[in-house]
Amino acid sequence: MTRKQTAGSLTGGLILIGLAIIILVKDISFFPWILAVIGIAILPGSILKEGWRHALTASSWLIGLALCFHFNVFWPGILILIGITLILEGLFPKRMKKHNSFDDEE
What we know:
Elements: H1 3-24, H2 30-49, H3 52-71, H4 74-91
Helix pairs in contact: 1-2, 2-3, 3-4
C-alpha cells in the first residue's frame, strides 16, 4: 500500500468514526464539530504527505475554529490561532525540497 493510499484510508476511517460520534451524541450540534472531525481526520494523512508543520497547522485551525464557534469567542480565538500558527512555524521550519536528479525530464 502506498503512502497516498494509507493516508486516504486513515482519513476516510477517521471521518466515518467522527460522523458516527456526532450522530450518536445528542448533545452536540453538527456544524462546529464537523470542523473538528475534519481537523482530526486530516492529521495522519497530512503528516504522511506534507510533514508535521503543515499537518499541525491545518488541524489546529480546523479544531480551533470549531471551538471558537462553539464557545462564541470568534475574534479572540482567531488571534490565538494566529499565535499557534506562528509558534508552529518557529518549531517546525519549512523543509527544503531535495533535488533529485532522477526526477528531471530529459
